[in-house]
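During the reporting period the student researcher (J.K.) took over the structure-prediction task from the postdoctoral fellow and processed the backlog of single-chain submissions. One of the processed entries is reproduced below for the supervisory committee.
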Amino acid sequence: MSATTSTYDWNKTIPIDQVGVEQRVDRLNSRSIKKDSKIQALKLALSMIDLTTLEGMDTEGKVIQLCQKALRPHIEQPDLPKVAAICVYPNMVSVAKKELQGSGINVASVATAFPSGMATRKIKIEETRQVVADGADEVDMVISRGAFLKGEYEYVFDEISAVKEACGSAHLKVILETGELQTYENVRKASDIAMHAGADFIKTSTGKISPAATQPVTLVMLEAIRDYFYKTDRMVGMKPAGGIRKAKQAIQYLVLVKETLGAAWLTPDYFRFGASSLTNDLLMQIIKQQSGVYQGPDYFSKD
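J.K. obtained the following structure tokens:
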């Protein structure tokens, strides 16, 4: 259940110690993980991936191929976990839903005029309802960054609330597009607005803007989730997206989550990676840990 705008002062700014945030990330990144724990972390990261294709040249065939990769990340390792979800454009939702039926893998759709968010609220709500009707289990919406940066916080809150209502039983991931928010304080404020408006997940980026996900920004968002949980007892998920390509990075993000939120968030129900190329690097590292031999990138199917 979301709060109402009257219970929160959106003009209040929570100061963020930039140096402190970045030093904490550096300290956590210095930790080493031993072999058995590393294999577990790699497999956990694989299970948390939203395998994504969001290109103008996407076709039904490409989405079907991606679904096959989601179901069987590596044909020679049948015991590997499946990914958490497939994330596609709205017109590909029904294709993915048919291909993944009965698999337990969710279908996520971007919506609300992704990636710009430049559409009327009516259009955003209609698009959200349509993707849910087509079978989306999760909706990844983008906030109106222009309105946010003008200080129209209630507008942003009300829009997220309206989209959340349009989702029905589908989960809502709210993309902040942190690369456009300019400051850590803005990232924190946008995180708070999204959670109070009913977000099930908060997400860094569309992957279309640079910088996309960074560890310091993710830490700021994780701390917002922690503080919101202390106040409301409601767990909100986190999804860094864009630019996470290597297994080493993925493990560093898992350490951030464990040290900031605790083990309860180390599950696909509450943490996801928005990625595609990350999958093959995780597979390569898992096989290296198990066999002692690196396989080249061409050894795995292309996404």
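The committee noted the following: The domain at 18-299 is CATH 3.20.20.70 (TIM Barrel).
J.K. will present the remaining backlog at the next meeting.
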